[in-house]
Design goal:
It is built from 4 helices and no strands. The chain has one domain (about 5-155). It is elongated. The protein starts with a helix and ends in a 6-residue tail after the last helix. It is mostly helical. It binds protoporphyrin IX containing FE (HEM). Protoporphyrin IX containing FE binds near residues 9 and 146.
């Protein structure tokens, strides 16, 4: 029978695939392509322009992952997991989600977008490198979290 938890779990994983898959595409395909195709002075503005469309997809999928995740915690009453070290992967999921939520909903619209553009006028190469480094770090942490969450969900850390 199809119940709320199965639907929520499906939507949770679907959201993760679209969101982290998008981050992987931006990090491993789009950013290197921009570096090859554009002069250093034009890279940041060009990248920000293209990434704007993905930012909306990322906001939607972040919301979906958060809502479905907390729904599962609520209906299965998993809150006590947050007090146990063996469920560190639950903390990791919420931490990754919180970092992206702050970046996408607060930092980027309020100041990050403008800060990158201003900084890139002063130091185009350094600013583009910073953007690349931030994407690589976020992607690596997200992928490790996916591995830990799948292993944890299937009993991998319970000894
Ligand atoms: C508010 C943030 C989040 C909450 C509350 C949350 C909650 C949950 C819960 C309750 C489960 C099911 C655990 C179980 O069956 O024992 C789960 C599974 C999972 N979550 Fe999250 N999650 C969140 C964010 C994330 C993020 C950011 C990622 C990826 C980076 C992620 C990836 C996964 C994966 C891969 C599974 C395993 C699915 C499976 O194998 O069935 N979650 N999450």
């Amino acid at each position: 029978m199809l119940d709320g938890a199965i639907v929520a779990r499906g939507l949770h994983v679907l959201g993760v695939v679209l969101w982290i898959g998008g981050v992987a595409f931006v990090t491993t395909v789009l950013l290197p392509a921009v570096a090859r195709m554009k002069d250093p002075e034009d890279r940041v503005a060009f990248f920000e322009e293209i990434e704007r469309a993905f930012a909306w997809q990322a906001r939607g999928t972040t919301l979906l992952v958060g809502l479905s995740g907390f729904y599962l915690v609520g209906i299965w009453d998993l809150w006590d997991r947050f007090a146990q070290v063996s469920y560190f992967w639950m903390h990791a999921m919420v931490a990754v989600w919180a970092v992206f939520t702050v970046m996408l909903f607060v930092a980027e619209p309020l100041f990050l977008h403008r800060w990158f553009l201003t900084r890139s006028k002063r130091d185009p190469e350094g600013t583009f490198r910073l953007i690349q480094r931030m994407h690589r770090i976020l992607l690596a942490v997200s992928l490790l979290t996916v591995i830990a969450a799948v292993a944890g969900t299937h009993g991998g850390f319970l000894g």
